[in-house]
Amino acid sequence: MGNAPKVALLGAGRMGQVHGRSAAANPRLDLAYVVDPHAPTAETLAAELDCAVASQDAVLADPALAGVLVATSTSTHLDVVLAALAAGKAVFCEKPLDLDLARLRAHAAQLASPAAPLYVAFNRRFDPNFQALQARIAAGEIGALESLHLISHDPAPPPPAFIPTSGGLFRDFSIHDFDVARWLLDEEPAELFAWASCLVDPAIAAAGDVDTARIVLRCASGKLCVISNTRRSGYGYDQRAEAYGSKGAAMVGNPRVSTLETWTPAGALAAPIHPGFQSRYAASYAAEVDHFADVLAGVAEPVTGYAASVGALALAEAAARSVASGAPVRLADV
Amino acid sequence: MGNAPKVALLGAGRMGQVHGRSAAANPRLDLAYVVDPHAPTAETLAAELDCAVASQDAVLADPALAGVLVATSTSTHLDVVLAALAAGKAVFCEKPLDLDLARLRAHAAQLASPAAPLYVAFNRRFDPNFQALQARIAAGEIGALESLHLISHDPAPPPPAFIPTSGGLFRDFSIHDFDVARWLLDEEPAELFAWASCLVDPAIAAAGDVDTARIVLRCASGKLCVISNTRRSGYGYDQRAEAYGSKGAAMVGNPRVSTLETWTPAGALAAPIHPGFQSRYAASYAAEVDHFADVLAGVAEPVTGYAASVGALALAEAAARSVASGAPVRLADV
Amino acid sequence: MGNAPKVALLGAGRMGQVHGRSAAANPRLDLAYVVDPHAPTAETLAAELDCAVASQDAVLADPALAGVLVATSTSTHLDVVLAALAAGKAVFCEKPLDLDLARLRAHAAQLASPAAPLYVAFNRRFDPNFQALQARIAAGEIGALESLHLISHDPAPPPPAFIPTSGGLFRDFSIHDFDVARWLLDEEPAELFAWASCLVDPAIAAAGDVDTARIVLRCASGKLCVISNTRRSGYGYDQRAEAYGSKGAAMVGNPRVSTLETWTPAGALAAPIHPGFQSRYAASYAAEVDHFADVLAGVAEPVTGYAASVGALALAEAAARSVASGAPVRLADV
Amino acid sequence: MGNAPKVALLGAGRMGQVHGRSAAANPRLDLAYVVDPHAPTAETLAAELDCAVASQDAVLADPALAGVLVATSTSTHLDVVLAALAAGKAVFCEKPLDLDLARLRAHAAQLASPAAPLYVAFNRRFDPNFQALQARIAAGEIGALESLHLISHDPAPPPPAFIPTSGGLFRDFSIHDFDVARWLLDEEPAELFAWASCLVDPAIAAAGDVDTARIVLRCASGKLCVISNTRRSGYGYDQRAEAYGSKGAAMVGNPRVSTLETWTPAGALAAPIHPGFQSRYAASYAAEVDHFADVLAGVAEPVTGYAASVGALALAEAAARSVASGAPVRLADV
Asked: Does the distance separating the beta carbons of B264 and D235 come in below 8 Å?
């Protein structure tokens, strides 16, 4: 690993552990530090990953450090990223860059043409299934894309205490679908309409949020996209995408935990889909860290950064406004 | 067939031939007459089905006649039905009863509590697949229903000349989905929002219509339903329904023309879905004529009549208004 | 039906009812008589099918009669068929023509070049799924056929009392697979090896038969075919065929009773396959009666007659000998 | 990795690279040495895996070394394994332990109760799909197991030059199926019958081997197992298993490279299955190295060693004899 660029992990919580393990296992990166305000958390992960515990300031001051992986708490992402960029470090930032659209735009100067490469981790772009679908569409194999249907159904709702800090269903959860929609549509949505209900848990409504939504996007060309979201599917972690074009359709479904089928008089039972994002997206998490290695090696530009962050967040903002007003929202007004 | 009730077929066009053949093959009905303003059309079908050609007046005047199957041109449905009911004949009417909501409501007195049984043929309620889904939902097997997704994609657009007489995409085509939505939701939708584009054929836009739509329904309980429509799928006749509930999901897909699979390095190719409604819904067309035999035998009430017709047509009307206004429409206002 | 050829049904038991209903519903045939030694059985079916009860002698003496459908008890098939052919009547004979290979061959003169057309009803050749597979193979789409796997698993064993009269697993049950093998291989098998067990019901062993078998066929060209049989699957009526060729594979599976899928944490449950041959092969039974109408109309030669009967029965005989001897059997020796 | 046991890789060819990478990536093992008679091969892999190049003698003489992974050329496996065991090193041996049944049995004393743990890598036992099937059978969920069907079809034949050194189809290729059969049947097969052809490449016949086979196993209890093998499928790397029991069936199929489906008028095309063993069994290769870590940690006994090797090789020997003699072979005679 003598030539692998030295990187640090900032934040050793749930997603920090995921990205830290990917970085440690990737021979193209040299994970040198783990930073976390909670010392035992940092120490445990550093021990597992065979690297040092350090402070953020010390890490950013290390001239040998090439980049950082930011997986701190969401509310701190933007400040940490700005500090890292100011220190000239390449940044891998767990999504979202920030939950506040205005605040994000206020830092456009530092973020849109950053001093060092900035990758914001919309991991679904690295899922082999979504990639296969995008390649199929881009190759024109279904003709001109006319409509999309994106499904993201969580297996079970988060604890109610999480809701007030989440930014709401659209900024926290639908944000992935907004990014996928922008990527697959290959055209900026012009308008958005959303209806949302609270059907899963009254505590979510009590916290001012919704848990079940249908969102429609319309592009200037007439392309339509429906997003289907729920906080609780009752059957597993359901993430699908269907694309309809002038010559046919293409779609990606849910991988299953095995290819086992059981045949009884009740029918043929296929094995369950994955129970959560950790196993479903294991490959995409590793792949996006590998993409960061490409960025550090100078052989790739970050596929998603400030523009993708603002684009997806503006759609989330529009969805929230549409639900509040009961009317469609023009993206130009967001 | 000595005891089978005597019935007549009014209208020997495309759907008249479908229903006429079902009636002739059904041992519980005695198809006695075929009526059509175009004599050769009537004669050809009467010869095939081994019954007599007659005029509508003569048929309705036959005291031995128990019922009529109405498959005349859409614009005449209502007048023919009213005449048949006035003559005391049970009616099987190909959908729609009428394309004009106000006109339909104006005849509520004769249609809502008709002098003889009135069945309006929303055939999808007799498709074994949709029936299996409805039974599963009604039995509570997916818990409380929370959302629906209905897909109706035609294989290819109709000739442009048909468009001006069709009533438009929503009254002509989506009407089936509106009926299925009301049936599966088991709750009247309170609001509707629709966006529609013309992406398939500019001649459709020139005729003042749309060919691609996404419609969202919302019930007072918060249940949501998305309807996906296109006039041209590029891959066959696609009719599916997905139901999401508090405990899981259930869905029905497209039967295929065979169970053949072909394996090559490109993947596993499953046989095509049906190319059109004739083969896809052959069983449901026969089953709805059998339902009419039940109605004539006095062992069943018509499953769909005036109320279903008005309910579905009001949703179509709301969809057209929503597209025109760009805003959601309350069904109470339609 | 004035011009439809007049036919009679001989035998009104289980398969007689199936074929009688197909004949009555087929506008290209005029089913005039039902014959059965048990008068009430004949009368009930004749009433349902709106035709006359008659004796076999009277029927065969009717100069207006064009053909007979033979569905009498298996042990009488050959005598009835010979009588009908002698009377110049075209014959549709439910399989098998006879269970005794030597006896069948002894009548080769009358059966191989019969005085009137002789169709022996190996119904699987009229199943749309098997037909699709055969067409795919014949068209060369999987290259040169190299091996086959045929699966026939009954849902539940027959009553033990049936076993002694059945001819044994191979003559009664595997016979369909032997016919399908000959059809799909398009080359006469040269050798056969079989192993069989009694795993389902000891009463079957007590009756001198087996209930679970694996049979391997080898052609002179080296093509191999495995047949998998059981009297009790535990999950439904399972009938599949897989073909492996030099360029890929093609296979047909089991149609399901609907396209319903149910998603729960346990997985995705597809609707059951058919519970028995009646619903699974409804279309093929109707199609083979329609084939007989083609034969009577002079537009088709019977697809299977004496040669197919002897070919399949010789394989059954070889299987029984292989199980008895524990060694492969050359078909030339049977 | 301070506490991870020190291991060496013997053999840096195709499978050595697979196992070496798994060992290097496994934090529970400390891969210290790579050994290969061809120095550049050893050096390249050692550089990649960040470990030292050494000779076999030096490695076995290292008192700190806990175990070896043997992936040398097949003909040397047994000698290397015996030397490693004599040196007290735990052994992970790529299958087969040897191709000669008599030679293997001649070393039963050293191998059946070895001086150090001996794991022989039948990797399919670590495939999550096969494991799921085995667990389902073992849990009695399909009732009593009655029959098995194992399919192993290679995508394309090996170079003809490989054939003479391979041990033949049964010892080289079917050996995996023999191991899976013994594992899933949970009963030693008593008899075997095989037919084999050369349909893929005449050069294989010229080298004295076959490329297409059907093998039937029979147990004393009457359980039957069919194995289907070909050296060239024409559609990918096909590895499946179907288990039929008294209450139903369970089966595992081929994972696909993605969940992509493409819908056109020709049908629905699912993504290809894996093109070869490397990607299909990536998880199982890693899992078996992890099993070796368990063995070294003293928390597991090797799941397969001498007994499994002899059991599978005896079936291969029986298959070769059956093909040669054209008759079934009793395992007691092998």
From this structure: yes
- Residue at token pair 């209903």: C21
- In sequence order, what DSSP letters do the residues of C234-301 get, joined into one string? SSS-EEEEEEEESS-EEEE---BS--EEEEETTEEEEPPB-SSHHHHTHHHHHHHHHHHHHHHTTS--
- State the greatest distance between any 2 C-alpha atoms of chain B, in Å, as a whole number: 67
Inter-residue contact B207 to B163 (CB < 8 Å): yes
- What distance in Å separates the CA atoms of residue C166 and residue D159, rounded to the nearest whole number? 51
CA A26 to chain B, closest CA, distance in angstroms equals 31
Q: What are phi and psi of B231, to 5 degrees?
A: -85, -10
Q: Which partners does chain B have (≥3 C-beta pairs < 8 Å)?
A: A, C, D
Q: What is the pLDDT of residues C64-110, one digit of tens each?
A: 999 999 999 999 999 999 999 999 999 999 999 999 999 999 999 99
Measured at the CA of B267, the angle between CA D266 and CA D132, to 5 degrees, comes to 130
Backbone torsions φ then ψ of D129, nearest 5 degrees: -75, -50
Touching subunits of C (3+ CB pairs, under 8 Å) are A, B, D
Give the minimum alpha-carbon distance from B50 to chain C in angstroms, rounded to a whole number.
8
Calculate how close chain B gets to C72, using CA atoms only, in Å: 26
Q: Which chain C residues contact residue A272 at CB under 8 A?
A: 265-267
CA distance C215 to A126: 48
With contact defined as beta carbons under 8 Å apart, do B260 and C129 qualify? yes
Residue D76 forms contact with C (CB below 8 Å)? no
Out of C142, C224, C230, name the one closest to residue D212 (CB). Answer: C224
For residue D164, the distance in angstroms to the closest alpha carbon of chain B comes to 29
Is the Cβ–Cβ distance between B126 and B173 less than 8 Å?
no
Any A CB within 8 A of C272 CB: yes
Calculate the CA dihedral of residues A293, A299, A304, A305 and round it to 10 degrees.
Answer: 90
Give the Cα separation of A239 and A124 in Å (integer): 10
Chain A contact present for D265, CB below 8 A: yes
pLDDT in tens, chain D (334 residues): 458 999 999 999 999 999 999 999 898 999 999 999 999 999 999 999 999 999 999 999 999 999 999 999 999 999 999 999 999 999 999 999 999 999 999 999 999 999 999 999 999 999 999 999 999 999 999 999 999 999 999 999 999 999 999 999 999 999 999 999 999 999 999 999 999 999 999 999 999 999 999 999 999 999 999 999 999 999 999 999 999 999 999 999 999 999 999 999 999 999 999 999 999 999 999 999 999 999 999 999 999 999 999 999 999 999 999 999 999 999 999 9
CA torsion sign for D323, D326, D331, D333 is: negative
Among D153, D269, D273, D274, which would you mutate to test the B interface (most chain B Cβ atoms within 10 Å of its Cβ)?
Answer: D269
Q: pTM (2 decimals)?
A: 0.96
Inter-chain contact C272–A266, Cβ cutoff 8 Å?
Answer: yes
Neighbours of A, requiring at least 3 CB pairs below 8 Å, are: B, C, D
Q: What are phi and psi of B22, to 5 degrees?
A: -60, -45
Q: At residue A110, what is the residue type?
A: Q
Chain B, nearest residue to C50 by Cα? B1
Interchain pair B252, C263: CB under 8 A: no
d(CA A210, CA C189): 67
CA–CA separation, D160 vs C224, rounded Å? 23
Q: What are φ and ψ of residue D8, in 5° steps?
A: -125, 150
> Does residue B254 belong to the interface with chain A, where contact is any CB pair within 8 Å?
no
Tell me the ipTM for this assembly. 0.95
Cβ–Cβ contact B157 with A under 8 A: no
D232 touches chain C (CB under 8 A): yes
Report how far residue A51's alpha carbon sits from residue D1's, in angstroms, rounded to the nearest whole number.
12
